[in-house]
């Protein structure tokens, strides 16, 4: 007679094996689209999208970006070609008569044989949240009027929609990308731009007239919604052979950002809050090693992010850390080595990058265990790791990056060499939706998408079918963020499966889990979890939150705890901590 516990163990292991089959079925994919790598040509100088506004010294290249830390400020920039003209911005809220004025500054620069127009930057502050404002620049009959809408007040459940474009350039494809973004019914409210703007440096002597055409090209969108800038390699403009040895000269003159508001010492790296998101912009082409200004700033800033206020932590940089295309393969490696441990420790949700002229979305993976002698240098699934999304497919004249490394590595979830843009649509503190839109499709079509957070969905979905507690599945899928809310107990709906199973496993093995073959680990993990949930179900309890780990919140170290709620919603909480 076989003991009952042996039978039960066998059933658990069998179910665990089935769960793992389901999990592995969710593997990476290379799109079937096969595009020729035809170069796309820049639009000619007399294209309508480059049209100079009529009138003497009329303001042109109008664009806006966030002008403070929290979204109540806007930097308005424009260029007057012939003379400085007026520095003043007149602005007013919709449905009010009261008009306000703000004065900006004007800068110019020379680059080889090019002299810029008069570049105006005016910061308007203390605006009302979630309000439509009109503004005017210029004087007399060349005054031009635009509008923008300020974001809602920063808060954890504030919905907000970001667009994503990178490596845009100024080709016919670039124009298609921008049009596609503008007409996308998902309606991006601000644009996260991941570097490589005009590609003027592809011209002889970095012809800066192509910076001007690019400024006029993007005005139709960038004058109405803030573009959050990231510097790419095409912004460096370092050309000592023609006497130009100051990096980023055209870029930093033309595109101001509110870097001082986040205590940064350089416009090339900075951070902002916007709605429910905290956005960190990094510079891959500035010093970022240990003890450098950028490193010091980043490592301070990332620890200060208050996830109860801005649960979504987004990082922008130019070259991707995880890239499986041949183009720029491993170029992001030095930055990855320096910063990936921070991204994992502080649970960055998503890292957006460009540089590779294609689209790619990664699994949640990390590769942070290597210490020179342990041989652990392969990406592994990690629910604390960000999703890495390459969106360098804006459509510039260098063409698509069609060559891919083969076979598709485990860390790559989806890849396709097509031009397009992305939308990151935040619903509330626990749910967001990313979609990628290729230019060849209709405006509402999603060529790829991912719900956030997704770390445990596959397992959760299968578990549901076994134990029929759909409500728990919903809780499972929320596991990444709620850990940060344990203090306020406002949400309290997560089971940190990995922490639980790792705790159990480590208590059994006492060894580093990395050395356990992954399939065995998953099998055991799922079987234990299933057993746990079944017991919970038998007891008639919903376990709403269980964190068996140490973590940091608001600068304090917390021990994990748990909150157990009986079905009638009577809370029995046992949150442990803070520990120090
Ligand atoms: Fe680039």
TrEMBL record:
GO molecular function: acid phosphatase activity; metal ion binding
Ranges that cross the membrane: 528-546
Residues covered by the Fibronectin type-III domain: 58-153
Family, similarity comment: Belongs to the metallophosphoesterase superfamily. Purple acid phosphatase family.
Pfam families reported in the protein's UniProt record: Metallophos (PF00149), Metallophos_C (PF14008), Pur_ac_phosph_N (PF16656)
Cofactor field: Mn(2+); Fe cation; Cu(2+); Zn(2+)
PROSITE patterns documented for this protein: FN3
Name of the protein in its database record: Purple acid phosphatase
UniProt EC number: 3.1.3.2
UniProt cross-references to CDD domains, sorted A to Z: MPP_PAPs
Signal peptide (from-to): 1-22
Keywords tagged on the record: Glycoprotein, Hydrolase, Iron, Membrane, Metal-binding, Signal, Transmembrane, Transmembrane helix, Zinc
Reaction(s) the record says it catalyses: a phosphate monoester + H2O = an alcohol + phosphate
Coiled coil: none
InterPro entries referenced in this protein's UniProt entry, alphabetically: Calcineurin-like_PHP (IPR004843), FN3_dom (IPR003961), Metallo-depent_PP-like (IPR029052), MPP_PAP (IPR041792), PAPs-like (IPR039331), PAPs_C (IPR025733), PAPs_N (IPR015914), Purple_acid_Pase-like_N (IPR008963)
